[in-house]
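Morning. Coffee machine broken again, so started the prediction first thing and wrote up yesterday's gels while waiting. Chain of 143 residues, entered below exactly as on the submission form.
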Amino acid sequence: MNTHPYIRAFLAGVFVPTLILPLLLVAFIVLRLVPIERGLVFPLALVPAVWGLWSMLWLWSHPRTHLPIGIHGALLPFLLLPCGAAVARHLGIVTFGSDSVTWFQALHIPYAPIACGFAVGLAVYYLVWKYIVGFLNRMLGIA
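Came back before lunch.
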């Protein structure tokens, strides 16, 4: 296990700040910034930690499920979208109508383009998890 020791060292070094700093950033944003910044920065603060936890979940569940990492990664948007929508609705960023979503009481987007964007997002998540996260897991010797 002497291959790529610098990558392993880097990942080991960023582990704790990656878990703690996003939580501090979320607390700061929710308490101090106006709604548009909350809507833009809130997901950016949590997604890295969620990805790390999702990767840990794959490592834990893979011996039981044998689910490929790409498919496991493509399941993550099914968790992120409802959670993000619930947070955005609670913060007053979005309003859900019968035929569209309204952002900041100004921008109306029908559900069809949102569904298409979600499908593209699933494909992107699959590819990123299969090729990038899978590669990093192999380099770390955990896949």
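The longest helix spans residues 35-65. Going to sketch it on the whiteboard this afternoon.
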